[in-house]
Amino acid sequence: MSIAHDLSDAEFDELDDLLAATPEPLQALDASMLDGYLCGVLVQPRLIPIEDWLPPVFDYEGRPLPDNVDPAWLARVRGLVERRYASLNQSMLEQGWFYPLVLDLDAEAEAEAETAGDDASAAPTDGADASDNAPAASEPSAQADAESPELEVPTDPITRALLPWVGGFEYAAVTFPDLHEQADDNINSLLARLYRHLPVETPEEQEIVDLMNREHPLKNIDDAIEDLVLTVVDLQAATESQRFHVEQVRRETPKLGRNDPCHCGSGKKFKQCHGAA
After folding, report:
1. What pLDDT digit, counting tens, does each position of 9-24 carry?
2. Out of 116, 202, 225, 242, which could bridge 45 as a Cys pair, Cβ 3.0 to 4.6 Å?
3. Each residue of 55-112: pLDDT tens digit?
4. Long-range contacts of 134-137 (CB under 8 A, 24+ apart)
5. C-alpha–C-alpha distance, residues 24 and 214, integer Å
6. Stronger pLDDT, 260 or 208, i.e. the higher one
């Protein structure tokens, strides 16, 4: 078996920048959401070809890329995404584990602090409070909220770190609904363990989240990441038999031997009649 070479840190950053350069008005996934999306594709009960799962990466609303898109840009994005897809698949199958690309809250806080410092140093010195002109470091700007299709940023650190990844996974499950349509309690339970990191919209969803938190409590972010990884690996194992099931072709009539009477009723042997063709 060939070895799938995963992306380096620099290539992950490059991929994130390339996705951000998707032509407007399309809204592509970011690298973390893409990672969850790829896992959501991999655990489907059927094999999905790249021609089907790649286009949704570039826009949440399913709009196609323009005809004049830069072919070099598209080829580079596809190459990086395919490598990550192959690496995730191989890691799950051979190791029962993978390393998800989740949000690094410490790095994000440092970046926001640096941005806030730069904004403060560039603020006017006429006595105005610099904080009046910049968003808080822990909050997204109003512009980002207006332009981004991502879910509202939660305050819980575990949910905040995992939300983009799980949101990408759910996006795959909605785009390709075969997984959600499985009448399997085990699959539903595994999905609930992932979806508890998404915003709660109904009392029923809150009950499920409360149940998951009681049955599978998460002590910290490392515990949460381990639970996420093992849940996805279990989902892939639960759908594996369907994904690689091959339908047997059954003949409605028995196969004719060359010396059998031809099926046309001519009285000749098959090899001397229609079999000769």
Report:
1. 999 999 999 999 999 9
2. 242
3. 999 999 999 999 999 999 999 999 999 999 999 999 999 999 999 999 886 665 566 5
4. 137/109, 137/112, 137/113
5. 44
6. 208
What mean pLDDT comes out for the span 248-269? 58
State the Cα–Cα distance between residues 33 and 163, nearest whole angstrom. 9
pLDDT value at 44 more than 60: yes
Q: Which residues contact 107 (CB under 8 A, 6 or more apart)?
A: none
Alpha carbon distance 277, 275 (integer Å):
5
Question: At a CB cut-off of 8 Å and minimum separation 6, what does 80 contact?
Answer: 7, 11, 14, 15, 18
Give dist(CA 272, CA 71) in Å, integer.
56
CA distance 274 to 58: 53
Largest Cα–Cα distance of the chain, in whole Å? 108
How many Cβ atoms sit within 10 Å of the Cβ of residue 170? 21
In order of 19, 160, 217, the CA distances from 110 in angstroms are 23, 16, 29
Rg of the chain on CA atoms, in Å = 26
pLDDT in tens, 199-226: 999 999 999 999 999 999 999 999 999 9
| Tokens (6 digits) for 141 | 């700007």
Task: Name the token pair of 110.
Answer: 């440092």
DSSP string, 3-28: PPPPPPHHHHHHHHHHHHTSPTT---
**Separation CA 153–CA 197 (nearest Å):** 11
In the numeric block, the tokens 């470091």 are attached to 137
Whole-number pLDDT of residue 15: 97
